[in-house]
Amino acid sequence: MTTTIAEALTDARQRLDRALSAAGRNTNSATLLAVSKTKPADMVREAWQHGQREFGENYVQEALDKQQLLSDLDDIVWHFIGPLQSNKTREVANHFHWVHSVEREKIARRLSDQRDPALGALQVCLQVNISGESSKSGVSLDELPQLAERVAALPHINLRGLMAIPAPCDDPQHQREPFAALSDALEHLRSILPDAQLDTLSMGMSNDLEAAVFEGATMVRLGTAIFGARN
Ligand SMILES: *Cc1c(COP(=O)(O)O)cnc(C)c1O
């Protein structure tokens, strides 16, 4: 039996609602981001037809190709969530609404400089390395406050919060630890940057959504659970 995208989306929304309710949180306090990397534009369109609006992509050229095929869907919201090299910042700055994976000041500065001011501010999360040596991506917790201060000061960027991809872990109890650390880090940033919007914790994927929601995720990024396994 194959699951349709409509069924998978319904299941994913129910799963998110159940997790929010189990955590004592309001139904609409977290957004479902559908991660469509490696999946064709037709599948994104199908998800859109079933009410999904926020989509995450990891690879710049793949995303631009899909955006072209989906340019009639004018209320779609594109999130860039993959590793970002400086030679790709111009495209990302001007073809996405959000970037979750900023980990260096240089990249943030280029995004701000290259963003067409007519588009308004680019919404940015800083990617944090909360699993220590087991991950190479993300700014360390030590260096986060300084990076956040500098990014918050850039004119065409709105610093919204933090993103993390913890080391894979199948034990739900242990899954919560890195998410709690990310949540604490956001609290700290709010105290040192009281004027920044800082309302976003982008955390939780198909394998650890519940743990992330329990620790305060406001955006969960589901790929496999919506579009099926990637090859
Ligand atoms: C691929 C990816 C996801 C989705 O992962 P699933 O396990 O398929 O839900 C979420 N976030 C990032 C940054 C990703 O690269």
Keywords:
single chain; about 230 residues; alpha/beta; 8-stranded parallel β-sheet; about 40% helix; globular
List the helices and strands and how they pair.
Elements: H1 5-22, E1 31-35, H2 41-49, E2 54-57, H3 60-69, E3 77-80, H4 89-95, E4 98-102, H5 105-114, E5 122-127, H6 144-152, E6 157-163, H7 172-192, E7 200-202, H8 209-214, E8 219-222, H9 224-227
Description:
The protein is of the alpha/beta class. Helix content is 41%, strand content 16%. The protein has 9 helices and 8 strands. It has an 8-stranded parallel β-sheet. The longest helix is centred in the last third of the chain and has 21 residues, at 172-192. The chain is globular, with a radius of gyration of 17 Å. The mean pLDDT is 96. Pyridoxal-5'-phosphate binds at residues 35, 37, 58, 81, 165, 205-207, 221-225.
